UniProtKB/TrEMBL annotation:
Keyword Transport carried by entry: no
InterPro entries associated with the record: Gfo/Idh/MocA-like_OxRdtase_N, Gfo/Idh/MocA_oxidrdct_glycsds, GFO_IDH_MocA-like_dom, NAD(P)-bd_dom_sf
Protein name: Gfo/Idh/MocA family oxidoreductase
Keyword annotations: Oxidoreductase
Annotated ranges, domain GFO/IDH/MocA-like oxidoreductase: 132-258
Length: 325
C-alpha cells in the first residue's frame, strides 16, 4: 500500500483545524473524500479544503473504491456502527474519542477488529504532542523520584471555553455523547494517565447533576489504583464560577512534582531545589503527529499508537466513574 487514501465521516468542527488538513500534510497520505449528512455543509467543506469528493451518505463514502482508510469524526453515538461497517468493508479506521458511548460498545469494536484482522486506532492524539512526550521523558528519567500520587482538577463553568460551540450542543446530550463535558474532555486526561503509568488495578467513582442545567451529569469524581501502586484522584466539575476555573494535573513523587494543564501549553516541575517552567507551541494541526504515526502503522512500519484494547480500559474507567453498569 503506497498511499493511505482517506475518507472522513463527519466533517464537523474538529476536522476544520485540529485534524482534517493534516491528512494531506503527512507523507504517504491523501484526503480524497468527506461526508456529512447535510449535503450543503459537506460540499462547502470539500470546496474550502480542496477535497475532490464529498458525500451526504456514509455508505457511499465507504463504497468509494479509491478509499482505503476512514476517519470517523461524528458524535460518539454513531462511532460503533460506522466502525463496524468500515471494518467489514476492509478499511483501516481512525476513530475519534471517546471511542464509543460506553465500554460495552468499545468491546464490540475490539471484537470486530479481531474478527476482521483489521487495523483501528483511537484518537488519543496527545500521546504524540511534544508537551506530553516531554512529560513522559521527565518521568522516564525519574526527575521527581518514585511517583506516589496523581491529582487532577478540571473545574469549568457551565459553558467551558475549552469546548467547541455548536448550535445543538450535542456534548451535553447523553444519548449522543455518552454523558456530558466529562465524556468530551476526560478521555484525553485519563488516557495520558494510562499512557504514563500503565494498567489500573482498581477504579471507582460517582457522578451527579448538581446544577440540572442540562440532561447530563456535571460533576464527576474518580479514583484509580494502578498496578504499580500509584494512586490517582480526579475531580471534574462543570458548574463553577468563571473565576474558579481550573485545569491542573499534578504528578507528585518522592523528590519533586510535575504540574501541567491538559488543555494548556506549559509544564512546571521541580526536583529537590531545581525549579523549571517549560512552555510549548502546539502543532498547527494538533492531531498531525498522531496521524503521521497512524499512516506509518497502516503501512506496517510502526506499532499501533493507540489500540482499541487500551480504549476499552479507558471506557471501563469512565463507566465506573459515572455509575454505568
Amino acid at each position: 500500500m503506497e498511499t493511505i487514501v482517506w475518507g472522513i465521516i463527519g466533517c464537523g468542527d474538529v476536522t476544520e483545524k485540529k485534524s482534517g488538513p493534516a491528512f494531506n500534510k503527512v507523507p504517504n497520505s491523501r484526503l480524497a473524500a468527506v461526508m456529512r449528512r447535510d449535503a450543503a455543509k459537506a460540499e462547502d467543506y470539500a470546496r474550502r479544503h480542496g477535497v475532490p469528493k464529498w458525500y451526504s451518505d456514509a455508505g457511499e463514502l465507504l463504497d468509494d473504491p479509491e478509499i482505503n482508510a476512514v476517519y470517523i469524526a461524528t458524535p460518539p453515538s454513531s462511532h460503533l456502527p460506522y466502525a463496524l461497517e468500515a471494518l467489514k468493508k476492509g478499511h483501516k479506521v481512525y476513530v475519534e474519542k471517546p471511542v464509543t458511548l460506553n465500554a460495552a460498545e468499545a468491546e464490540a469494536i475490539a471484537d470486530a477488529v479481531k474478527s476482521a484482522n483489521g487495523k483501528l486506532v483511537v484518537a488519543h492524539y496527545r500521546r504524540r504532542v511534544p508537551l506530553f512526550l516531554r512529560i513522559k521523558q521527565l518521568l522516564d528519567e525519574g526527575v521527581v523520584g518514585e511517583v506516589r500520587t496523581l491529582q487532577l482538577r478540571m473545574w469549568q463553568s457551565r459553558k467551558p471555553a475549552l469546548v467547541a460551540k455548536v448550535a445543538d450542543n450535542w456534548r451535553v446530550n447523553p444519548e449522543l455523547s455518552g454523558g456530558g463535558y466529562f465524556h468530551d474532555l476526560a478521555p484525553h486526561q485519563l488516557d495520558l494517565m494510562l499512557y504514563y503509568f500503565g494498567e489500573p488495578e482498581t477504579y471507582s467513582g460517582y457522578s451527579l447533576n448538581q446544577a440540572a442545567a442540562t440532561p447530563a451529569d456535571d460533576h464527576v469524581c474518580g479514583t484509580i489504583l494502578f498496578k504499580n501502586n500509584i494512586v490517582f484522584n480526579g475531580s471534574w466539575c462543570f458548574n463553577v464560577g468563571d473565576e474558579e476555573q481550573v485545569d491542573s494535573i499534578e504528578i507528585v513523587g518522592t523528590r519533586g512534582r510535575i504540574t501541567f494543564a491538559c488543555f494548556g501549553n506549559y509544564i512546571k516541575w521541580h526536583s529537590e531545589r531545581q525549579h523549571n517552567t517549560e512552555e510549548f507551541v502546539h502543532p498547527e494541526h494538533i492531531q498531525q503527529p498522531m496521524i503521521a504515526d497512524i499512516v506509518r502503522y497502516f503501512k506496517d512500519e510502526v506499532p499501533n499508537p493507540c489500540t482499541i484494547d487500551e480504549a476499552v480500559t479507558l471506557m471501563k474507567i469512565m463507566d465506573a466513574f459515572t455509575g454505568k453498569p
